[in-house]
Design brief:
single chain; 117 residues; mainly beta; four-stranded antiparallel beta sheet; globular; binds 2-acetamido-2-deoxy-beta-D-glucopyranose
C-alpha cells in the first residue's frame, strides 16, 4: 500500500509551552516545516517498508508542500514487474519514484500548483 503523507507540527498541541519546550523550537519556527512524502507498507507482513520525504516548504508559503491526494501506481516503462509511483504535491513538483524508493533521474518536474491526482 502506497500513501501520500504530509508532516507538520500541530499548532494547537504546541500552543502549550510545555509541549513546545520539548521541540526546542519557537512558535514562529513551527511554521517552517511542511514535508510531503510517500509511505509504503507491506500489507502481508504489516510492516512499514519505506518512508520517502519529497519536499519541504514553510506552512505559510502560498503553495505549501502538502500531498493532498493519492499517488498513481503504473507500469510506466511497460516492462512488467514493480510499478512506478507518480505523485504530485501542492507546491508544484511532480515526482516519479521507482520501486526501490529512489526518485527517477529528471524528476521532480516543476509545474504550477498540483491540485489533483
Ligand atoms: C511482504 O511481506 C511478506 C511476508 O513477510 C513477504 O513474503 C513479501 O516478500 C513482502 N513483500 C515485499 C514487496 O516486500
Amino acid at each position: 500500500m502506497v500513501i501520500s503523507v504530509s508532516y507538520f507540527f500541530d499548532t494547537e498541541f504546541y500552543s502549550s509551552p510545555e509541549n513546545l519546550e520539548k521541540l526546542q523550537l519557537s512558535t514562529e519556527e513551527l511554521d517552517y516545516y511542511i514535508v510531503s512524502g510517500i509511505v509504503i507498507f507491506n500489507l502481508t507482513s504489516k510492516q512499514l517498508v519505506k518512508q520517502i520525504p519529497l519536499a519541504l516548504t514553510k506552512a505559510s508559503s502560498e503553495h505549501a508542500a502538502y500531498a493532498l491526494f493519492s499517488p498513481t501506481l503504473v507500469d510506466l516503462d511497460s516492462e512488467g514487474g514493480p510499478l512506478e509511483i507518480i505523485v504530485g504535491i501542492l507546491s508544484g513538483q511532480l515526482f516519479v519514484i521507482n520501486n526501490e524508493g529512489s526518485i527517477r533521474p529528471g524528476f521532480p518536474k516543476v509545474f504550477g500548483p498540483i491540485h489533483g491526482q
